[in-house]
Amino acid sequence: MPPLGEAGAHVAALHGDEPEAPGLLDKEVRQLSAVRRFGATGAVLMAVGALGAGAQPVLQNPVLGQRVLGLPARIPSVALSIALTGSIMVVIAWLVLGRFAVGTLRKGNIPRRMSRSQLDRTLLLWMLPLIVAPPMFSKDVYSYLAQSEITARGLDPYKVGPAQALGIDHVLTRTVPTIWRDTPAPYEPLFLWLGRGITAITGENIVAGIFLHRLLEVAGVALFVWALPRLARRCGVASVTALWLGAANPLVLFHLVAGVHNEALMLGLMLAGMELALRAIESRDPIRGRNLALLLGGTLVIVLSSAIKIPSLLALGFIGMALARRWGPGLKPILKAAALLAAIAVATQAAVSLGTGLGFGWIHTLGTANAVRSWQSIPTLLGMGTGFVGVLLGLGDHTTAALSLTRPIAMVIAALVTLRMLIATHSGRVHAVGALGVSMAAVVLLFPVFQPWYLLWALLPLAAWATRPVFRVTAVTLTVVVSLIGPMPNGGEYRPFVIVQAVTAAIFTVLILIAITYDRIPWRRQLRADDNTDPVSAYPGSS
């Protein structure tokens, strides 16, 4: 039986084994340090700009009226320029960091990469300013706080929204975006239970609540920093490259850390659960004892991730197909694996729903986000475009009817792609991690609503499996575009002339900084190892 990681010819365009590599040369280490400082400076500028251009609370704003810290809020156009400058710097630094992570540096025919410790320190340095900064790019964290308060009061967050449960003038309701004030919680019970614990600690203190929610998401990031290199080695991919494309991705920094989105915890638990389960399935030892505990534990962790947000439950299907393949060919092992994992999933979800006291109301609010007509979503854009054409032709506005067709058709296509990947996983042509990534990509692209951070549902598992330039170039391009042309730092909108002024100032500033650092950072070309300097140390332990 061929190994699970062996790819068929039809996936050769995306995947190929990628060996680990020795460490960097002395000159390259110095240049890496310069890139690290450039990105860290950008993160600091983002944090400073967020004091005036971030998604600040309406009430309990700690910098309001402060002489120094409150200055950015009094000059919002300048604050926006600073935040955008920092964002561009972080994205550029990440792109240049890729030269040290992908293995394009060579001494003769030997590729070299930065070490795991070098990448970890870079990621930590870029994250720290954003951990203490005000929220950016989204106001969802204020909905988290309000829904957690509703849960703490013993009310049903799946039946009432913040305005009805807390009152329109409540300190937490005031900062919730208007569109969500009357909307029940779209999140699963485990997340609201964790939020209830945060509320028990912070009460109505918005700043403390934001900080604890952010620490929760940072814990999620730490989980997939742990899982990604292990999954990458399982798929024959260089661990540092997977971490660069996945964990160090600007979308992670901007939207999971700075934006405080619960996708961080969902994805961290999902990937950690996959690693635990695959460790048992791909072991040469029988699935009993320790391996059985790993399989059950990994399955449990994946189900818990779906109790944060439901899309991660898709990972369970690919674990099931990998397990069925381990047990042998035919339909019987598939049914056996499906029955086992389904029983664990149902039992765990029921235990979480009943144990938290929140019940099963979350089932009825899963489609809450569909109320937003997001033009970035392909099926929604097609439906809105069809309705607009109808209006132009004088046939009336049939946008709602068009959306009722385009959205279900898109979901059917995503389901067919997922089914194809499940079959490919069972046959061994595609590894479970890669198949999950491809399926998540189909779901994200065909989902009725699109948000920038949704790309990470697919990008993180694919970062641990796909190695070909056709994928990596596409992933990098999407990351850059979505990172820089996405929500404003305050989570809302500015007047067009303010945006134009801020973007112009940011670009001009970044060009000056590139000119200043031109001799220290390899902006134009890949590094050439034309000296005889030995690597500072062997991969992966160098610092």
UniProtKB/TrEMBL annotation:
Annotated compartments: Membrane
Coiled coil residues, start to end: none
Highest taxon in the source lineage: Bacteria
Record's keyword terms, sorted: Glycosyltransferase, Membrane, Transferase, Transmembrane, Transmembrane helix
Gene Ontology terms, MF aspect: glycosyltransferase activity
InterPro entries, sorted: MptA/B-like
Keyword presence, Signal: no
Main location per the UniProt record: membrane
Keyword rRNA-binding: no
Transmembrane segments: 38-59, 79-102, 123-138, 206-228, 235-258, 293-319, 339-363, 375-395, 401-423, 430-450, 462-485, 497-518
GO cellular component, one term: membrane
Homology family: Belongs to the MptA/B family.
Name of protein: Polyprenol phosphomannose-dependent alpha 1,6 mannosyltransferase MptB
Organism name: Speluncibacter jeojiensis
